[in-house]
Amino acid sequence: MTSKWRAARGGARRPREMNTDIAAAVKPEYPVVDRNPPFTKTVANFNTLDYLRHLTITGVSVTVGYLSGIKPNVRGPSMVTGGLIGVLGGFMYAYQNSAGRLMGFFPNDDEVARYK
User: Fold this and answer.
1) Residue range 42-70, pLDDT digits in tens
2) Most buried by CB count within 10 Å: which residue of 7, 32, 110, 111?
């Protein structure tokens, strides 16, 4: 059926270009350092507060995971699972803050001075 449809539509499918334009519903309030920062630049832009938030979220998640284990033989796996969730969640939170500073959505005086 697919080949008949393609033949009826004029042959092979044409590849579509991926839309890489980032249009924000809200305009940045601060100077834009990089409109679309790559992963490596965003991670390299982590500051001390980002690392502290990451560590705090991870520590709280490990503790909550341990305390949510009702039976003693469930506490270990529950703690590990909570820790993994905390590591990923903390990283995503730090990444969001770092990217927001680079894109001008959060205060970014240090980034503007560093990347000029």
Assistant:
1) 999 999 999 999 999 999 999 999 999 88
2) 111
Gap between the Cα atoms of 105 and 64, Å rounded: 32
Would you tell me the crossing angle of helices 48-68 and 72-103 to the nearest 10 degrees? 160
Counted domains in the chain? 1
Instruction: Identify which of 104, 95, 67 has the alpha carbon closest to the alpha carbon of residue 83.
Output: 67
Indicate whether 92 belongs to any domain.
Answer: yes
Which residue segment(s) compose the domain that 36 sits in?
A: 30-114
Whether 1 maps to a domain, the answer reads no
Q: Residues 9-37: pLDDT tens digits?
A: 665 666 677 666 666 678 899 999 999 99
Share of the chain above pLDDT 90, in %: 71
Distances from the Cα of 18 to the Cαs of 26, 34, 37, 44, 107, in angstroms? 23, 20, 17, 26, 31
Residue 42 lies in a domain: yes
Residue 76 lies in a domain: yes
